[in-house]
Design brief:
NAD(P)-bd_dom_sf; 6 helices; 37% helix; 10 strands; 22% strand; SDR family oxidoreductase; Rossmann fold; Polyketide_Oxido-like; 212 residues; single chain; alpha/beta; NAD(P)-bd_dom; two-stranded parallel ribbon
Amino acid sequence: MRLTIFGATGGTGIQLVRQALEEGHDVTAVVRDPARLGAPAHERLRVVTADVTDAAAIGPAVEGADAVLSALGPRGRGPATICRDGARAIIEAMGKAGVRRLVVCSAAGAFTDTGDGLLTRYVVKPLILNRLLKDAFEDMRHCEREVRDSDLDWTLVRPPRLLDKEATGRYRTATDINLRGGRSISRADLAACMLGVIGDDDSIRHHVSVAY
């Protein structure tokens, strides 16, 4: 498949690029600074330097793709709009290019539902996580609204705390509900999950929670 990956220089994005190449896909990695892309040169890797919030600038990177994956996320704390602005531009560029499949990395901590245990639902998320990560989570919620309001074949993937560990292949998923007790996952396993849902038609227009 021909995949376009946004946020390719981040921890999850680098894993997406590496694993996609290992699986035999043709990859277009969209970056602001090519020097930060932690992946060696590869005959099936094309690196495009562009502002992800500019739909016209990223248009050539999206054109001809079978699927687009976004691992965009804010860096550090404080007000952030990269997720929502990036999603808006990506959706516009995909619409113009006639590309339909979109997989976006979100965050489980930004959302509470009946899948959460009582402590998580009423204490951990509202009183701890949503205070510590208020701006990042607000950006992610806006991003999800942008994606959900589009007419694309989207899937939102919601991980909990991310770890810099190797892939295990042993993770759980749930559709349209949070995973009880799901506290962490490695970026490598998250990337594997995101790549895995591309061909899963049952995940289209749903969110998928993933965790150990």
